[in-house]
Write a structure and sequence with these properties.
Strand order of the largest sheet: 2-1-3-4-5-6
CATH topology: Maf protein
Distance between the termini: 16 Å
Oligomer: single chain
CATH class: Alpha Beta
Strand content: 15-25%
């Protein structure tokens, strides 16, 4: 019987869980657990001023309080002509209810008078394993569309068109998105590390 290593993904976001489970190779001997699997229900702290800082803070919280090898990720949409907004506030840009439609509407409204619609997504994954911190970053450049397009994905996917594509993330579909996305890039770096770590 293979010896699976337990690893906790410090999130309660089911969309992120689904996306990452699609990317994890089946032959990686890791038993991936979520916060609710471990009986962890509290809101994780996100009070740092950077995407990387928030990812590290969440992973450190789980490791320090519960002792699990774990990883956390933080992702932000960065819009150049909005001085980097929404950035670390991406999930709560239009309010604490984390409403994707309201968040997208706020971005589109603020860009109405802007000609520069360039933007990028950035993901940082913070892994703490056996007490050691490792970070992995993924980034994709693109622009904000004039309106919401597509019904796949989540978050800002319907208004983000990656460079080299005529469609938004929400139009190209989850399988294509997982080949090129910011989260996929960061996760692939994490997977490479884990493969080498557990040899």
């Amino acid at each position: 019987m293979a010896d699976y290593k337990e690893l906790v993904f410090a999130t309660s976001n089911n969309n992120k869980i689904i996306e990452i489970n699609r990317l994890l190779p089946k032959n990686l001997l890791i038993s991936l657990k979520m916060l609710h699997d471990m009986g962890i229900e509290e809101e994780l702290p996100e009070t740092r001023s950077t995407i990387e800082g928030n990812a590290i803070q969440k992973a450190q919280y789980i490791y320090d309080n519960y002792g699990y090898n774990c990883f956390a990720e933080d992702t932000g949409l960065v819009v150049k002509s909005l001085n980097g907004e929404p950035g670390i506030y991406s999930a709560r840009y239009a309010g604490e209810d984390r409403d994707d439609d309201k968040n997208m509407n706020k971005v589109l409204e603020k860009l109405k008078t802007k000609s520069n619609r360039r933007a990028h997504f950035k993901t940082v994954i913070a892994l703490i394993i056996d007490g050691i911190l490792h970070t992995f970053e993924g980034k994709i450049e693109g622009e904000i569309s004039l309106s919401k397009r597509g019904d796949s994905g989540f978050g800002y996917d319907p208004i983000f068109r990656p460079n080299g594509y005529d469609q938004t993330f929400a139009e190209i579909g989850i399988n294509e998105k997982n080949k090129i996305s910011h989260r996929a890039k960061a996760l692939n770096k994490l997977i490479t590390f884990l493969k080498n770590y557990y040899i």
